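User: Can you help me understand a structure? I only have the sequence.
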Amino acid sequence: MPFDLILRGGRVVDPSQKLDAVADVAFSGGKVAAVGNGLKVDPGTEVRDVSQFIVTPGLIDLHTHVYWGGTSLGIDAEEFCRASGVTTSVDTGSAGPGNFAGFRKHVIEPSQVRILAYLHVSHAGIFGFSHRIMVGESEELRLMNPIEAAKVADANRDVVVGIKVRVGLHSSGTSGAVPLDIALQVADEVGMPLMAHIDHPPPTYEEVLARLRPGDVLTHAFRPFPNSPATAQGTVKKAVLDARERGVLFDIGHGKGSFAFKTARAMLANGFYPDTISSDIHQLCIDGPAFDQVTTMSKFLCMGMSLSDVVAASTENAAMALRRPELGSLKPGSVGDATLISVKQGQFDYEDVVGEHLIGDKKIVSEGVVIGGRWWHPN
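Assistant: Let's start by predicting it. Here is the structure, written out as tokens:
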């Protein structure tokens, strides 16, 4: 088949192929067609000179809230993805079984960018999250709706990738781990992974980890004290190491209150890298301290992770967490998504959720987006 688009001469960083080299990337029929040098231009092929940029697989943000207009915390997915180079936005529990149909019809289906979702086990998802109202949806157990959640998840397997639950003092009050146990029953019933939010105890970090299964995701994994994964001595808690050993995945989920440089420094110093880097973007953190996906990635780059590892945590690893191996890769036959980035040098001020600032010397900037084998942004 003739190529629809060729990205010419960029530095291709694709951890799924252990590739870091200057090459062309060609797309055809909505998929990656070839990666190589001097790829042939056919009549009608669009060619973009990207020699100034780095080409990665389309970035996946594993933790976002994009039910714009349906929940008070939702942001516009397309606007966010243009700014942040994201081609797959994974909404994590904005909607539950009671309002997922609206999320699908009015947001997911019309979107030019791919939106996948973890379905909340609570009936209306995260409904009371704003500057003025903060109601933990898991605090009221009458809102837990496991029977309908299983039905809705099963009926929407093309876009629902797992089950979401939020536990902790702010989201489940004194209900402890009970909402988590209910959500795990749903995840077992439909054969999907679970993503668990954690904030202040109860329950404890250890209690949550003890319940998670291989392939389940603990988000807000590098959160500050209390419920930090690091000890006061700067080591990694044994329960965290044991959970990773049995296949539990650790996601950043930066957000407004869930990422601390102190925690991250301790974890990275012990060689404990996050499986996935995500922004947890929503209305209360899009203007800081999270801002977007590339800013969240930049923080880890400035703390010593290699560019390849940072990209892997936003592409290949995220695709594996989603059980969608066709994403997060530039292997021929993969979904035809790509992100163009540059790494700026200078002095950049980064802030975590407890007010600590880090002056970093690097900043990842989104320069362009390819979706479905077509150049999408900027025009």
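Now, to help you interpret it: The first strand starts at residue 5 and ends at 14. The chain has a mean pLDDT of 98. Let me know which part you'd like to focus on.
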